[in-house]
Design goal:
By secondary structure, the chain is α+β, with helices and mostly antiparallel strands. Helices cover about 55% and strands about 15% of the residues. The strands form 2 sheets. The protein has a 3-stranded mixed sheet with strand order 1-2-3. The radius of gyration is 24 Å and the shape is elongated. The two termini are about 30 Å apart. The relative contact order is 0.11.
Length: about 140
Amino acid sequence: MTQITANDLKTRGIAAIEASLANGRLEAMVSVRGADRFVVMGLAHYQHLRECELEAALAESRADIAAGRFVVEPPAEHVRRVKAMVAAQGSGKATRAAALVAETTTERPQKHPVKAATKRSAEPASKVVALPRRR
């Protein structure tokens, strides 16, 4: 990976970046006072990396759903549970948040929740599917 110094950027501007990315190079490191601080890359390479990142997130979500790591609940219950988790994180009561998550049942979502709801009752099928946040 090529190096660009902050001084090069100051004196040469975009020409320094273009020269560093010439000849098929994808990325260039920008150093400030001798320490690597930034990476510059062409727009096409950036868009490719974003696509890869989104594909990885989608694959992770699909794996969570396949393994049953999700919650199906009405929106009001979802908001209550998330607020309790946020409050527990702020006050150090993480065990209460874990208990709230544990008390929620895990069930597979129906293929057509709107059709299923209209067959059972007149209420609309308003459900929130929440996947657990990975750290």
